[in-house]
Amino acid sequence: MITNRNVKGKQLGRDRDKLRFYISDQANADSLSAWTERNEDQFRDDLVLIASQFPRVDESQNEQQKHITFFIHGYNNSWNDAVKRYLQIQKELYGDGGLGQLILFTWPSDGSTFDYLPDREDARASAPDLAQIFVHVHDYLVTRQRATALTEAQPCRAKISLIAHSMGNYVTQKALAVASKMLNNPQLITLIHQGAMVAADVDNDLFQDSQPQDSDGSLMANLCYRIGALYTGRDEVLGASAGLKHFGKRRLGRSGLADANAVYDNIFDFDVTPLLPEDATNIHSAIFEHPSTLKLLQFILMGRDRSLLPAAVGI
Asked: How many Å from the N-terminal Cα to the C-terminal Cα in the chain?
């Protein structure tokens, strides 16, 4: 777990503070005492050790390569809520021979449905903190790449991927844009191999290729190999948020891309409505709660070609 929340007793609070790093082998979301704080170097070494135990796979088995994945939660999430969702995704997709290792990035969402606009400001304020993490990951990957080229060392065993939910996508949008600028818009290395934007509370024209080259969408597309946006028109939370603020654009997680034929080539959307049971509740988070949508999320992170995804999930 990486967080910029303040420490408040045995919990993480709602205020922004310095970045902190934690590890835990206990499935416990109730108390911070279940987590051990590490400094950034120790945390990096912990992840390197985990990745070193991933199996090496041939390039012809690219989908089988394991992942180090960042999960960025949405708004109206207390720390306890964020950890519970993290533990659920880790269990469903990453544990017991699954995708690899999931990392929770938890930011100081105010945890109230009446605090949408303050949460958006919290999200924007948290972006430079997450950007700092992305820059450090980039620098490590570049070091590994150079070592592989110069000494014939073995390449990395893990892909870097990302799952963002709701307004966590806004945190991610701003963080990747900041990171790209800090790195002078790098062209030689992919930072995020696969990105999944779940119920994204961002503008649906974010990735239109008519946007300026220094726009957030362009900078995000530059740092990622592929980004998939999962959406459904049944998401009433995003319908309400669009009406509350009316920033002028529809929400990506409710309506999909504004024009799927005029976006950067590594961006696509997927309507999950056919995969959701008719009686499904909590639609805003439903992708994490049903086997069919979890399967879709897994295939996207594995790198399954977008043209094969409908058949893979039985549509």
From this structure: 35
